[in-house]
From TrEMBL, chains A, B:
GO terms for molecular function: DNA binding; DNA-binding transcription factor activity. It holds the Pfam family GntR. PROSITE patterns: HTH_GNTR. It comes from Marinobacter mobilis. One of its GO terms (biological process) is negative regulation of DNA-templated transcription. Residues 11-79 form the HTH gntR-type domain. InterPro entries: Bact_HTH_transcr_reg, Chorismate_lyase_/UTRA_dom_sf, Tscrpt_reg_HTH_GntR, UTRA, WH-like_DNA-bd_sf, WH_DNA-bd_sf. Keywords: DNA-binding, Transcription, Transcription regulation. This is Transcriptional regulator, GntR family. It comes from the Bacteria. The lineage of its organism: Bacteria, Pseudomonadati, Pseudomonadota, Gammaproteobacteria, Pseudomonadales. The keyword 4Fe-4S does not apply.
Length: 242, 242
């Protein structure tokens, strides 16, 4: 957790309280998913007010070091899932390779059609047929992302009848003989609103990471456009060059 | 600006006000860097209260669509700078290639040494000599990032005497015959605190994107570790695969 400024030992009191808690996390005194002391206890042990303790907690939350769980208090965030956009693995494979447990729930499967926005993303014509798949994915039992996937219905006849609580890429490979070889990926920070925030169990306005992925087959034919809304503290994007 | 959920036409009033303003931005009725109407006018024209208008503005800010400028009101965010971590260009080259104007200010140059944290990042031994360079970079006159660069003093003798208000990579190439061929890059959302927030002219807690880059030369020798703090609405990470 390196984003702390290691050169600055001064500053407002709430940042000193934050540094103190961050140190305890870095040193392993507070383990992932363990509960933090109450605001009252934190205020007392840091010799400050509850208002200041709350500011420190809000800062740590915004940095992704702690998270709040429904009225049960504050918890230490588990390590971020590492995601390398240049590598070719599914969500499930990636999660398992990091010794963690993935889960996928299908929330909705609906026929839809290409809007102006999707036409600009996919190269299809407005009005073309799509199947829209909405899923929620978990790591170690915690929802980390909700996604809207737009599938090319003409390229994937009968796709809406499959079970989607599994790897979509495997399904495309096994049932349609498809390899998604060309991908355009875009990522930037955003704020989650409903229905995404609701699906992830957080309040509207919570920080998130927005990821889109447009995938084509061997012939450059559009297959799927995936729009993912991640909780901001769950993902670390890592790339190696050279 | 695609993160809006195109399937949801219902929801709380502030989100409808947000959609209305977002539509005006997408349709070009509100141009980048132009000023939004006042909260009072927005409330009246949307037939709602100023409290609701303010919620809509906060949401648009969190999504990176608008930004606040010191007591002068709300403005439409300019397009995000596109950054492809797999490509090999400097900040300045990248900004200019997108038809925009870069600027770099050196804030500080100080000798320092490798801490435990930097040892884990660089592979150097604790206590080894570094030069720490702190810079602020702008796009079209707006500060977008502040960075701490740790340079390998042994590999770069005399580095502290150069002018850093320019491309560091070009300097390394021209004066040390160095090409940075191996890079490890990591990126995740965070919240900006001081001294970063202050250097960028935003309040502590503002959303940011944290980027680190560890660069080595042809022989795998550590050259520089760069830690960048970007305003959350200024960057879009884009990668093409295949």
């Amino acid at each position: 957790m390196p984003e702390r400024d290691h050169s600055a030992a001064i500053g407002p009191i709430y940042l000193r309280v934050r540094d103190h808690i961050a140190d305890q996390i870095e040193q392993g005194l507070l383990q992932p998913n363990s509960r933090l002391p109450s605001e009252r206890v934190l205020a007392e042990s840091n010799n400050t007010t509850r208002v200041t303790a709350r500011l420190a907690l809000a800062q740590l939350e915004a940095e992704g070091r702690i998270y709040r769980s429904n009225r049960r208090g504050w918890f230490v965030s588990p390590p971020r899932l590492v995601y390398n956009p240049t590598e070719d693995y599914s969500f499930s494979e990636n999660v398992m390779a990091q010794g963690r447990t993935p889960a996928t729930e299908t929330l909705e499967v609906t026929p839809t059609e290409v809007t102006a926005w999707l036409a600009s993303k996919t190269g299809l014509a407005e009005g073309d047929s799509l199947v829209r798949l909405r899923r929620r994915r978990q790591v170690d039992g915690r929802p980390v992302l909700v996604e809207n996937i737009y599938l090319n219905a003409r390229r994937l006849p009968g796709i809406e009848r499959f079970d989607f609580n599994r790897s979509l890429w495997k399904l495309l490979r096994e049932h349609y003989g498809l390899e998604l070889v060309r991908k355009q990926i875009e990522m930037f920070p955003t704020a989650l609103i409903d229905p995404q925030a609701e699906a992830l169990g957080v309040t509207a306005g919570t920080a998130g990471l927005y990821v889109t992925r447009c995938s084509r087959d061997q012939d450059g034919c559009f297959v799927e456009f995936d729009e993912e809304f991640w909780l901001h503290d769950t993902l670390s994007i890592q790339v190696e060059v050279g």
